Amino acid sequence: MSDLRDLYQELIIDHSKKPRNFRVIDDPDRFADGFNPLCGDKLRLYLKIKDGKIEDAAFKGAGCAISTASASIMTSMLKGQTIEQAENLFQTFHTLITRPEGLEDPANAGVGLGKMAVFAGVNEFPARVKCATLAWHTLKNALDQAEEAAQTE
Amino acid sequence: MGTILDREGVAIRAGHHCAQPVMDFFEVPATNRASFAFYNTHAEVDQLVAAVKKVQEMFG
């Protein structure tokens, strides 16, 4: 069971049961949809942006424990970040989760991610990587103003 | 749930089952499906029940 606990850390279970920022922002500056048909994860991400900074971030939708916790912790982290900082977080998180081969310093892959680092264990569960990254791909689409829903299939 | 059961040696189907209209019909985001065949034993059914209890413990 220890490896399962690597995946379902207390913080992840807590955020999946009581997701933070789980609401609609009525007049968002950006929003985007994310969809992961395999698990059945579906979410809409809302952002309020002022002077290049994310003032508010929230999401609404239904999904598995990992995707819900990821969206919950992500939206908590985004508040106060500039768009550039948010894009950097996306890259760092993606590297932590996918650990591409030839990574120079795999032990430090999650540095600067704060609470998001609890998702490091997802790397051992390839089928669940898509759940953890869905909110982040949706964020990227929202920042890039993409019109199509983000899919991690 | 699928991941936890998988670790307990029980294979089920989880998610949309490539049947999104049915999920919309029942107004659920996703479902789990355990299917039995003639070769399944009572012991394997017990294993399934024990694994489901583990899920409850974790998320309960």
Could you explain how this protein is built, in words?
The complex is a heterodimer of chains A (153) and B (60). Chain A is globular and about 40 Å long. Chain A has a single domain (2-146), classed as Sufe protein. Chain: A, CATH 3.90.1010. Chain A has 153 residues and is an alpha+beta fold. The model of chain A has no long low-confidence stretch (mean pLDDT 89). Chain A has a four-stranded mixed sheet with strand order 3-2-1-4, covered by helices on one side. Chain A contains five helices and four strands, in the order ααβββαααβ. By secondary structure, chain B is mostly helical. Chain B has a single domain (2-59), classed as Aspartate Aminotransferase, domain 1. Chain B is built from three helices and two strands; from the N terminus they run H-E-H-E-H. Chain B has helices at residues 2-7, 20-26, 42-59; strands at residues 13-15, 31-33. Chain B has a two-stranded antiparallel ribbon. Chain B is globular. The A-B interface holds A 1, 3-4, 7-8, 13, 16-17, 37-42, 62-65, 125, 127-128 and B 3-4, 7, 14-16, 18, 20, 23, 29-30, 54, 58-59.
Layout of helices and strands, plus pairs?
The complex is a heterodimer of chains A (153) and B (60).
Chain A: H1 2-7, H2 10-17, E1 30-36, E2 41-50, E3 53-62, H3 65-78, H4 83-98, H5 129-144, E4 150-151
Parallel strand pairs in A: 1-4
Antiparallel strand pairs in A: 1-2, 2-3
Chain B: H1 2-7, E1 13-15, H2 20-26, E2 31-33, H3 42-59
Antiparallel strand pairs in B: 1-2
